[in-house]
Amino acid sequence: MSSINSQESQLSGCETYIAIVVDESGSINATEAQQIRSGLTSFINSQAQSNITLSLIGMSDNDSTLRTDNIIQKRISSNTSEFLTWANSFGSGRVNKQSDYWASGLKAASELSVTPDIIVVVTDGMQVNNSDVLKSLYRDLNLRSQIFVYGVTSNANNISELVTPLTTFLEKPPILKNSGISILNSDYIRVADFSTLGNELNQLNTDLSRTQVGCVANVSIIQNKLVYPVLRKGLPVHKEAGTLVLKNKSRVALTLPAGTRIHNASSLDGLVFKIESTITIPGSSTQEVAIRIDGTPLLTGNFSAPVVLNKVGNPLGISINFNVTKELYIVGTSSGTTALQSTHLQIAAVGSKGVDSTKGIHLRWMLAGQLGEKHLPKGDLFTGPRFNFNKTDDFVKIYRAPYTKVTYSLNFKQTPNLVDNSNALWIYKTTNPERSVYVYFKNKAKYLSVKATINPRANPSSFIEAYGNNLIEIENKNELFFAAELNFNSVNNSSALRLETLSVAENTILASKRVTNRKTYSSSEVNLVRVVAENGRSIRFKANNCLLNTIHFEFYSDFIQHANTNGNWDLKGKYALSDKDSKVFEQLEPKLNSVNGKWLKYNDGEYVNITNYKNRWNKTTTGDSRNIKQVVARYLELSNVPNNPTGVETITFGEDIPVNEPLEGETQQYAKNLTEISNLDMLNIAANDYHIARMLGLGCIDIDDAVYSGEFIYLTEYTTFGNLEGGTSEKEVLHLSMSIPTSVNTERLPLPVQLSKIVPGLNIGSDESQPAKITDPDGYSFDGKKRYVSLFMDDVMDYDINTEFFKSSLEFDGSSFTFPIYLGVDYKIKDVHSTWVKPELAFDSEYKNINKNLIESYYEPAPIIIPESGKSILNVRQEEVGQKTYIYQGYGINIFSRASAGRSININSNIQPANNLMPPTGINTLLITEETPLMFTSQSEQLRYNAIPAATDKTLIRILFEYYTIQELLSYSIPDGMTNEDAVKPNTIYPDNEEIFADNFKLYYKDGLPQIEYASIYSIENSTTDHLTSIIKITEYKVLSTGEEIKVTLNDANKGKFIGGILTIGDQNYVIKEIDVILKAKQNTGDPDVFDYALVEVLKKEVSESILSDGDATLDSEQIKAIKKSENGLCTLVENMLTPSNWHQPGPLNFRVQYPPALKAVHREIIQPDAEDPTNLQVEKSRGIWNDAVIERVLEESYKMDAKGNFELDADKNPILLPTKKHLGLYRIIFSNYNLPQHPQFKASGENSVEWFNGTIRLFTKSAVKDGNTIPVKSRKEFKVVRTENIGQTGDLVVYINDTNFKLGDFINQTMHPDHDEIIGAKDEGSFTAGYVSQKVNYYPSYKVYLYADAGSGITASNIQPREGESTHYSIFGISTHSDALNYDSKISVPSPMYAVKIVEPQRPEEVEGSLYATRPDFYNRSTYTFTTRYNHKPYGALHYRANDEDLLSVLYKRDTINVIREELKKLGGNDEAYFSNRWKNFLDFDLLETKVNYETYPPENESELGYHFPVPDNLELIAAINDFIKWHNESQGKNVVEITSLTALNQVIITRSQGVQQDLLAVHFIEQAIHAAFVPLTEVPVIYEYIKGNDYIPSNKKQTIKDKSGHILKSTDADFDIAPMMKITNDSENRTQFTDFNLDGNSQNIYFYGVCEMDIKMNFSEFSKLLGPVKLVASTPPQTPEIKRIMPILENKVLGIKPAIQIELNTYQPEYKIKKINIYRATSMLDAQSIRTMTPVKEIVINEDTLSTDFNDVWTVYDEFDDLEFVPFGDGLFYRITVSKEIEYADPGSTEINPIITIDYAPSQPSKITATVIVDNVSPVSPIVEATGTVTGINESLLKPVVFRWQKTVHNGKYHLYKMKNQGNWEKIHKMFSNENNVILPLENIASYTDELVIKTNDEQRIYHHFKVLSENSSGMFSSEEKILTL
């Protein structure tokens, strides 16, 4: 079988060439010959069907003779017999017995036309004539083919007979074939005889088939021509490396692609040797293959590896051999400036032992200052010319050097170079001019004391010893050190040292010093003190009982120079931004799993998952989200613009912003919500995560083996060309920043974050209350299911700046730690968790950590920003039910993303569900009475009513109410990590059986509305026992306008009803806590009780608001303010209807409405509120009926429409009925196999009953489903049921709903709009098959309750029906929800009133009066207008209207006509026309116009010929409306009035009395109606007169409040009810009201008109009142901000009489702006100039014709001449702003139409931009007259002391130079001073080298004269020239 398989393989495989060379010498005996024959025959027979071409070659008896019987390259399959004949003839003596000359057989093989794939030599020995010829022949043939020797030796010991010549031929040890190596890969086999020849040849065939010889190339490396460039450790190399010579022995070509590695390992010492270019090696050819090297050598030394190439042999064992030497680097050399420890480049280095992070040294650098704010290194990603900080080759270079101490020693035994005793200062100078060490003795008194006995120059060491334990500071002002060692001697057991190091952020003299080390050293530690400090400036200390001998400073510059000199620097690499994933990921993790699973994130067991960071880098994004790679790309793109170095761009931020308040019919308009972001800032913020910083080229991990022992210094190097000083010219700066010594053991972990306290509630700061009312004061949520607490922390330690020595007792070594930049919080619950809970409180649900086994674990912790001092760090939610102890622990996170934990703190919590029951809504109460026709009741209700016996109380009340998901829907966020399957289980999140749900409803009844008391406030005082309350004393009062006495009916019996009720003062409500009623003293026994006053204790406003909002507010004492009286001093008290006892007693009705058990099952449903965020899931809990349903579209009759949706009419003006019905939004919902029985409390008649009513159904609409998302993205939509079927009957439940949002798309065909959000699963009637389900629906039926007369509950006709004299009598009903679980009751619902009404016919209002002007616009440009109306009687209600001139003109005229009217009126002055009011009053005087052809002309013709009157109306719509009326009149009256084509006169008769009207209908009558139609109502609903407040009320700009927040109608007794906030009754007896229109646009140029209609209870309206108007607006909007065109100083010129001043030029305003004033404001500082309130008002210029000049028309020029100042402010910075004011006029409040009072006022503009200037003093100053004072004293009165000079101010911002005449008669300047004081005082002792005295006599009584003078120098440097000499 094997041979058959082999044949098949060869036939179907490759064409193979084989040559067998056979030794046929006499040394082969008969047995061996037979073995050879058998072997050859077996092979030939087995390959009879193969593709093998065989050559059988026999050896001859010399090297050169070729046998003629050789069979040369014939296919076995077609020449089998010939081959068998040759084989069978072997050994038959056909050739000479010496035929074992190898050269003869190999020569024949070498001359074959096709080189064989394999040559097998079969032999037992060898003869040769010329060994060199044989060797050459063997080598050449073996290079072109593969020679294999099947050799027989006499015994195994004689194998050298075979190996020795082969070694010679091959020039290498031959390869022996064994079981693991085939003939194809070996050189020989030694056997004892030829018995295995057949097996070997057949195995050869198998190997040929397996390796596809003949199909694939056989290529070998035959020569090594590799050339190695100089390789330096750490220096990247990308160079050519010579060639390899490859020989293809086969006929098949081999292609080697570019980049193919030529070694097994992924790299050799960081280098990769690979093929440079793709090359093809043809068959039987030789090619040189170019090799290149890429990579960075990691280590120095010699390296070797064999060359390994896939599909290429390496028979010669050629290898790669190279040497890596160390690279030499010199840092700090630059053609520009070098900035050592640059403020613009910083590096930090920390070590890691490998416990919490990757073992090695971690580096983090950053660009800082202006450079960091504007740039990140861009590597090779920037091309082009340099600008800003952009440049090519933009890398930060990182160097490393082993740390060695390089010190500068300061020996205090040596004499200082300079001693300044006056300043207690020594200076040691060095050969380096930049290095001088300053030694400050801070206790100057001690210093001077020691100096008195010890000369510091002579014995500095003794001086220091005597100075003792006093403060010394040693400083180098020019260079910074990073370490220092202090050597002390004279140390004993009492020795001690306190020491601090001071460091600076920048190497400048004025830089602030920070304490970076503070430590006390004991006697055992003092001998050698070493400190390490970054950027060390100085060391200060106090040494006790020990003497400082030397200090060894380690300066940054010394170490760098030393490392340069000794070649110690290694280049770690060049780093920058990259857009190559491979580069970024290499920086993220330099070696596989070196970070992944090794770096704690930040807790035990939780490790960094590198995959997360790779995902952050290049994850797929949608919308506006970006990965880091995209942010990098945007930064690179945008920062290529010169004026956008930080890559700022504008993005959409959240949802669009509404920009208008649409009126009815208008659409809401939106603007994009845009914000600016800096891509650079985003990258820098992201880089606070160390792993991201590395990806961005801002950090690296040094994991070289070399760093695992010893300390190292790291240096960053970066070159800038941008000008860091703000200029535009380039300035090359080389920035260097060096780390302090670091080893793997100096981990410098962050300071821990220490939690300080836990505060209940959501707190921002420790002293601030929670910003939102979502918890009670103890932090518990109002549903009781959660508790919120806020965690606070201690402030993180920071370095003290410029502080005194040892200011704090806190000691630290700043080189041993890092500061946290973020924090984290762990938590656990005592007795519940043994370890900290994972994930943490703050986590990122998008990414998960891994554990140490590299298995995905919990969500990543999210670092928390460290808050401001005193602010909370985290608001925590607790949810475990019951008494629990929560434990919290904080930890700090540094820039290396490593953490240190702080202490733990705990808090006890007890969580229980709260009472959040809500009362029913939609309560509607109706007293059922007999009714024909039916309007408010149904036929069944009439039957129920009629069934009540006539002789009994026929009271029957219907109460409708709803209770559905608005009351009981619960929504919970699904915690991260919880599956959806678990979320819908009844016991997860919050157990269903522990929820508080309704079980029944309580009903309440009260006769009448809530009781209200009206009173006057006598006084308001704070309670002395409770700071939350005030005591309000109330009394009765009299209404002065009417004389009505308002009585208070409070007494001890009824006062309890008001406890908990509301006391209202003005618009403020206060909860009543207690009432004490005081009665007047009785005159006689038996007199009735008479109310005197009451003391009402109320909760203050803030507390009351908290109570009214269910206590949902957190208060502190500072929020609570005192209660103040209202302007009218009145208040009202309202009965508390939330208290059950205030309803009809004995309490709620004894009839409760059940929530049936069938509806109580809790159903859970998962919702994804954010369609774009699949992680944000919520579970909703609801009850009611849940069932599958079929949803049908119901077809209805419809009428024909046009394309715009307007109904088309037939010839009779009737809508045209369509022949087919259409779907218009009505749906039928059929519950599948579900029947709803009637409510369990249903009764047919005669007793209280409950039945199901329509209710609410919840359905999913299309918008709730997102493609590819199986979870709804919106909650179910609620639809009100309009009709039901089969409730309480047989058959499936059916309900009907009307989709109020339904809209048509095609109006003609009346098909649904394609974008309509239709109900899911809805289908046309009859289009679904049996078993079809549209969706599962949730149905809450509402409740219909019937109550019969019940004397016990007070429900009787006598209580409910109106009393004698009443037009309306009210009863109220309330409902509360009850839960049996914890016996909870909800609040009682808003009372639902039930009433009866009397009707009064409306009449036309009489007087409508108002002023000429509206008020001035307020801050929001809103004006108001107030007018009064008088009625003939007390109306039921009224509606107030407004229109403007544009409205009126538009209904009467065409647009072209209106334009003409406007132009004509403008010529006459527009709104300022003299006859303005006359014209418009005439326009609206319809009674007068009945007799007029035209409107009146103004000005009258007797005054002017330029008069104008309104034309007769020509609006085509008006004419069409008149004609419509005519048509209707003709049709209804059977008349034939002719239609009109136009109006020709105001009194034109349209229809005469003869045509069936009571009086002639004139054109003006239709005009009047058209104008009335142009008026719009000013209130949403008509105002009910009964509810208008009295004269003491102040109208306010509030909307009418007649509905609650749920949209339900409020009762008139409701505290929120306010139907007329803008009105009041000013005179009850005259029925006079006042209405204020608060919503006039103050910017409008229109004029306005007002009108009023009265209304009755049936909403019938009276005629319009006479129209009021025109009303003008006050144009008080601020004028445009003035623009300062130029500002310049005017220099003084005394010759020309020019005073110094500042000239300011403004752009002018057009005359129509009415600018009348200019105001100048001045300040001397930019801070004061920020607001004109802090500036000095300099001048006000009134603009009139005298003011304006010719030049003034183009530019307005004003001057500041400093008239308000005593001195001109020469040299001061002067800052100016300008305002302008326009003139406005308006009517005085006391103005009347008869006696108008017009007020002139001014409206100022916003101030101009700040403009700065300086005025120069160009006049030489005057020398002051110097005076001096002093007392003559001393021996012989020889002294004058104290000498004090005085003179008057002569310069501003100048200097005074004091001179004294020397003995030689010349002047010597002894002092210079600056002063702006008016009286300058200079004590002599303030002058250097002088005391306070002058010697005025010699010892021999000779007087000594002292001459002084003072010269002034002004701010321009000009000196006074006069000499005014003072002689003393």
Automatic annotation (TrEMBL):
It comes from the Bacteria. It comes from Flavobacterium geliluteum. The lineage of its organism: Bacteria, Pseudomonadati, Bacteroidota, Flavobacteriia, Flavobacteriales. InterPro entries: VWF_A, vWFA_dom_sf. Residues 17-204 form the VWFA domain. Gene3D superfamilies: von Willebrand factor, type A domain. This is VWA domain-containing protein.
